[in-house]
Design brief:
Distance between the termini: 42 Å
Helix content: 10-25%
Order of helices and strands: EEHEEEEHEHEEEEEE
CATH architecture of the largest domain: 2-Layer Sandwich
Number of strands: 13
Strand order of the largest sheet: 8-12-11-10-9-13
Number of helices: 3
Structural class: alpha+beta
Number of domains: 2
CATH topology of the largest domain: Alpha-Beta Plaits
CATH class of the largest domain: Alpha Beta
């Protein structure tokens, strides 16, 4: 099965670690709104310039000409997260791939949300994007590799899905869960 190679989606690798601090003293989290279908191109540019970024990706399989092809797509189409000083932000704008740079008022909340999204993506579970999240039951996973994660339960068809939301974007990511592994909060 052909697989499109996974490109770097985080720089540095420990960007979302609890003890990570930006090299630039005035480095802040920013949400970058990219040109359509330019998230990976911008990530490559930021990688070359050494600007810390996070582009959450999920794996998608599709049939193309009777072959199963795996690709990695942005979990939040049109958005990428950076930690940048003013000169670094200017460098990102000069790529001509940035439509807008959104200010993040609650830095810790965004970082916490992104840490949870990163953990979800690295869990080995099948992650899917969730748009326009519905109000649902707040829950916590009580067993398995995602134990301790808090989020919202939504039902899609007959399956229960556990959603972790990035409030800033009003979007999130989800995994299918066994009802015995969760408890309502």
């Amino acid at each position: 099965m052909p697989t499109l190679h996974r490109e770097p989606s985080i720089l540095p690798d420990n960007l979302l670690a609890a003890d990570w601090q930006p090299v630039e003293a005035d480095g802040l989290w920013w949400v970058i709104h990219t040109s359509p279908r330019s998230e990976k191109a911008l990530a490559r540019q930021l990688f070359r310039h050494g600007i810390p970024f996070y582009l959450p990706l999920y794996e998608k399989s599709a049939r193309r000409q009777r072959r199963l092809v795996k690709s990695y797509l942005p979990l939040f189409p049109g958005y990428l997260f950076i930690v940048a000083s003013e000169p670094q932000r200017s460098t990102a704008f000069h790529t001509n791939l940035v439509v807008n740079c959104l200010e993040v008022r609650d830095q810790e909340r965004l970082r916490s949300d992104l840490q949870r999204i990163h953990g979800l993506c690295d869990s080995g579970e099948l992650v899917t994007p969730e748009r326009k999240l519905q109000v649902g039951t707040a829950a916590e996973i009580v067993s398995g590799p995602l134990k301790g994660y808090r989020g919202t339960i939504v039902r899609t068809g007959t399956a229960m899905r556990f959603v972790i939301e990035v409030d800033f974007l009003q979007s999130g990511a989800s995994v299918e869960v066994d009802v015995t592994c969760i408890r309502a909060l």
